[in-house]
């Protein structure tokens, strides 16, 4: 792939986007705040109360340097180093060690029995062709067996928790040098490796720190997977750029007992956390009154919400549940971002409750945001962060005025170069697009940047706020009318108590008589297969969707809990669900 620089070198201010690499920032904090706590991992696997492992800035810097020294003797600068480490402090050390050695890190995950993970891991490794695989002593045998089984033997394994001290030869890292490949979660296509430079991640991490008002000595708490873009930036990159301590836990520990997340937030004082929207509803539903005994959230700095459409009812349920613990709507910060922009594109301002507006559904589908008393309620994703955002007609590439729905385009120092292994023309169409003003003239990108990123997401700008309406490729188009799948899914999941919440996929399929709508829904766990009346549920879904959206649902498919295809971050894979439906591979409950 031909690489084209997306940014010019930045100035000397260490908090200026692109000015420093993450390893350089680590060295800076090791020298200036060496004895302060940098990283804590809380392990709940052996102790339900949690066992802490902490490192100071100086200790973390020393361990990262040891891994870098070991790696640079076994790989050449620019080689890929895949990180196959369980969620732990060692994951952070492995990732930063690869960067410090001048390698291109590939944050992935250790071999896991979870559905689809092994195939996805094999596809990622085959695509990036790593020279090294960084893992831990505990995982070495499992990783080795996995590589042999998948015919991927060849990369050298490095157990980062076993490397001895060695002489490190400093590597000068420039903003335009490649830092890592962030493989997308693949909710609408096969995973692709986003090429991220040191300048890109420094810019994105700086934007995140500024947006969330982080200061040196502050705290971040995260359970998000470190191989995911949000988990990596929130848990590693932003704390490094801002000098914040990071407290991490395993996603399974959160899912098993979500109040642990809130307990760590309470213990960390004025802490920052970010999670997908579903996590807030999940935590509210799975936290008992006993769990809340003594829990105080008064001092929490903020709860960030992103990665998926924000459902107002979920936000409301969280704050209603934890109001007695001191949680307030003004703690909530909603945002929008994607892997191709490293993380954030926009974020809401501090100190204000979520800004919701209700629009006419038919108007949105026709490309116009018309405010009404009852319709589709959207939560603002805030304003752009040190970058430019425009809403563009995806067909003519003309910038649309406020109030019109189109594709979200952005330009800034955080926008990446392209996709790994793709030809330059293919990457340029996505990462270096050229919008036009109403007179047909090119719109200038962010200063120092080349072109605009086409996000593939639909949205509308109103009074400076960005409202995300859906995915361009996920639109359900039946009888010439557009319908947003998340609206249909929300209606379907509330149509009958036998449908599991947040486990519905709606999409369109091409048949002999044109496009038709399909809804796939998981059975609620409290309803057994024997108790399920499929005909009754189907009728309820069809009636509810027809009444709310004027959309006839041709097929309603009920499946078992946990069977809906999802990405590594929990998003429903509508495209894969559509493929499995057309191939007859969905295990429908009869």
TrEMBL record:
Taxonomy, superkingdom: Bacteria
Gene3D superfamilies: 3.30.300.30, N-terminal domain of ligase-like
InterPro entries the record matches: AMP-bd_C, AMP-bd_C_sf, AMP-dep_synth/lig_dom, ANL_N_sf, FAAL/FAAC
CDD domains listed in its UniProt record: FAAL
One Gene Ontology term from the biological process aspect of the record: fatty acid biosynthetic process
Annotated keywords: Fatty acid metabolism, Ligase, Lipid metabolism
Leader sequence segment: none
GO terms for MF: adenylyltransferase activity; ligase activity
Pfam entry (one): AMP-binding
Gene Ontology annotations for the cellular component aspect, listed alphabetically: plasma membrane
Keyword Lipid metabolism set for record: yes
Span of domain AMP-dependent synthetase/ligase: 27-420
AMP-binding enzyme C-terminal domain residues: 474-588
Family: Belongs to the ATP-dependent AMP-binding enzyme family.
Protein name according to UniProt: Uncharacterized protein
The species this protein was found in: Kibdelosporangium phytohabitans
Upper taxonomic lineage: Bacteria, Bacillati, Actinomycetota, Actinomycetes, Pseudonocardiales
């Amino acid at each position: 792939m031909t690489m084209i620089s997306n940014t010019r070198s930045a100035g000397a201010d260490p908090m200026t986007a692109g000015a420093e690499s993450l390893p350089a920032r680590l060295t800076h904090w090791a020298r200036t705040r060496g004895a302060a706590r940098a990283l804590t991992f809380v392990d709940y696997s052996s102790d339900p109360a949690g066992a802490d492992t902490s490192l100071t800035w100086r200790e973390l810097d020393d361990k990262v340097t040891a891994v870098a020294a070991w790696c640079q003797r076994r790989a050449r600068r620019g080689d890929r180093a895949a990180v196959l480490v369980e969620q732990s402090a060692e994951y952070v050390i492995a990732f930063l060690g690869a960067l410090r050695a001048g390698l291109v890190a590939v944050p992935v995950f250790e071999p896991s029995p979870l559905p689809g993970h092994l195939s996805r891991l094999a596809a990622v490794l085959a695509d990036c062709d790593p020279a090294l695989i960084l893992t831990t002593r505990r995982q070495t045998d499992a990783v080795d067996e996995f590589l042999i089984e998948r015919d991927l033997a060849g990369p050298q394994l490095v157990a980062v928790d076993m490397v001895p001290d060695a002489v490190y030869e400093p590597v000068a890292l420039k903003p335009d040098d490649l830092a890592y490949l962030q493989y997308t979660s693949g909710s609408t296509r096969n995973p692709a490796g986003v090429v991220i430079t040191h300048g890109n991640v420094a810019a994105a991490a700086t934007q995140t720190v500024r947006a969330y008002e982080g200061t040196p000595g502050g705290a971040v708490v995260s359970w998000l997977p470190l191989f995911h873009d949000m988990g990596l930036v929130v848990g590693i990159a932003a704390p490094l750029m801002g000098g914040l301590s990071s407290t991490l836990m395993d996603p399974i520990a959160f899912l098993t007992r979500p109040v642990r997340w809130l307990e760590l937030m309470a213990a960390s004082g004025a802490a920052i956390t970010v999670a997908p929207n579903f996590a807030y509803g999940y935590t509210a539903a799975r936290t008992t009154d006993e769990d809340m005994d003594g829990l105080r959230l008064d001092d929490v700095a903020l709860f960030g919400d992103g990665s998926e459409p924000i459902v107002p009812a979920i936000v409301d349920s969280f704050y209603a549940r934890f109001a007695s613990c001191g949680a307030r709507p003004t703690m909530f910060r909603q945002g929008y971002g994607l892997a191709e922009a490293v993380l954030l594109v926009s974020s809401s301002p501090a100190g204000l409750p979520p800004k919701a507006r209700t629009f006419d559904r038919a108007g949105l589908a026709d490309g116009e945001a018309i405010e009404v008393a009852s319709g589709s309620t959207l939560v603002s994703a805030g304003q752009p962060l040190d970058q430019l955002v425009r809403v563009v007609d995806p067909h003519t590439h003309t910038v649309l005025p406020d109030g019109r729905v189109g594709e979200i385009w952005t330009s800034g120092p955080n926008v990446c170069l392209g996709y790994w292994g793709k030809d330059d023309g293919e990457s340029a169409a996505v990462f270096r697009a050229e919008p036009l003003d109403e007179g047909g003239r090119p719109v200038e990108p962010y200063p120092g940047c080349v072109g605009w990123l086409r996000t593939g997401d639909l949205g509308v700008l109103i009074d400076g706020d960005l409202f995300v309406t859906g995915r361009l490729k996920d639109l359900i188009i039946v009888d010439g009318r557009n319908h947003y799948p998340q609206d249909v899914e929300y209606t379907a999941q509330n149509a009958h108590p036998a449908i599991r919440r947040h486990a519905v996929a709606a999409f369109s399929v091409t048949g002999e008589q044109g496009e038709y709508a399909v809804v796939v829904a998981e059975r609620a766990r409290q309803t057994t297969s024997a108790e399920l009346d499929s005909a009754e549920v189907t009728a309820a879904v069809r009636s509810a969707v027809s009444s709310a959206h004027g959309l006839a649902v041709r097929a309603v498919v009920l499946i078992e809990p946990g069977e809906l295809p999802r990405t590594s971050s929990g998003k429903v894979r509508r495209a894969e669900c559509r493929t499995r439906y057309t191939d007859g591979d969905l295990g429908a409950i009869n």
